[in-house]
Specification:
single chain, 267 residues, alpha/beta, 2-enoyl-CoA Hydratase, Chain A, domain 1, Lyase 2-enoyl-coa Hydratase, Chain  A, domain 2, 2 domains, six-stranded mixed sheet, globular
Length: 267
């Protein structure tokens, strides 16, 4: 049996929006170690490039990512070496200082779903199959899913997904807090790109970066209050604080000059 070629990762930036695509010759966009490295490189590029204002992650064809490559020679479940990590995408999407949207256009299974859970928003095909079935394969969920799932949907839903390995559809994912919208498959990517373009045009990169950093933090309410105050001090002391209201009053696109890299550390 031949081993399928590793799923490639492509990155295209257009007018402030980065489109990252998982593209596998197998049509399933199966995830391998090299896929994880390439996806991490793409996300790091988006984080470091101030021209990128928003990111969309999707899969080529009719699948998002149908899981790990379990073909002979893939080493998916081999004895781990010292370089092994159950979180193979570094940085994870939640550390990227831009809005990251997962456009889940088809099946997202195992790590295909867990990497989508690291994104800020998820637009999912109504009939897409979603699962974290690792307990049915003698493994456990990866890519920090025990953290992301509880944050998104609470312990009860996280326990059901992680401890039973059951498969749900995209429509159910939206009702249970795992996705923001469930749409016909053909509408998923266009909707995600529309959101990304709106953010790239109208949202302050610095404000988004500071807000995202707090949103994904584990700070106590008291420390959040202090961090929000500090963020306000940074933003209110910059000309963008006047530019935003002026653009709103004049019904024009804001001209932001404060960058994400000016106010936050790289991923």
């Amino acid at each position: 049996m031949t081993t399928p070629a590793s799923t490639a990762v492509t990155l295209v930036v257009d007018d402030g929006v980065a489109l990252i695509t998982l593209a596998g010759s197998d049509g399933l966009n199966l995830f391998s170690r090299s896929t994880g490295r390439a996806l991490g490189d793409a996300l790091r590029t988006c984080d470091e490039d101030d021209a990128v204002r928003a990111v969309v992650l999707t899969g080529a064809g009719t699948a998002f990512c149908a899981g790990a490559d379990l073909s002979p020679g893939s080493r998916a479940f081999d004895d781990p070496d010292e370089a092994f990590s159950a979180s193979p995408v570094q940085p994870p999407a939640w550390q990227v200082r831009k809005l990251v949207i997962a456009a889940i256009n088809g099946p997202a299974i195992g790590i295909g779903l867990t990497i989508a859970l690291q994104c800020d928003l998820r637009i999912v095909a109504e009939d897409a199959k979603l699962a974290i079935p690792q307990v049915r394969r003698g493994m456990i969920g990866d890519a920090q899913s025990h953290f992301t799932l509880r944050r998104l949907a609470g312990t009860a839903v996280a326990a059901e997904m992680l401890l039973t390995g059951r498969t749900i559809r995209g429509s159910e994912a939206a009702t249970r807090g795992l996705a923001n919208q469930a749409l016909p498959a053909g509408d998923v990517l266009p909707t995600a790109l529309e959101i990304a373009r709106d953010v790239a045009t109208n949202v302050s990169p610095a404000a988004l970066a500071l807000s995202k950093e707090l949103l994904w933090s584990d700070l106590s309410p008291e420390h959040i209050a202090d961090a929000e105050t500090e963020a306000h001090r940074i933003l209110m002391g910059h000309p963008d604080a006047a530019e935003g209201p002026a653009a709103w009053r004049e019904r024009r696109t804001p001209n932001w000059t404060l960058r994400a890299s000016d106010v936050t550390k790289p991923a």
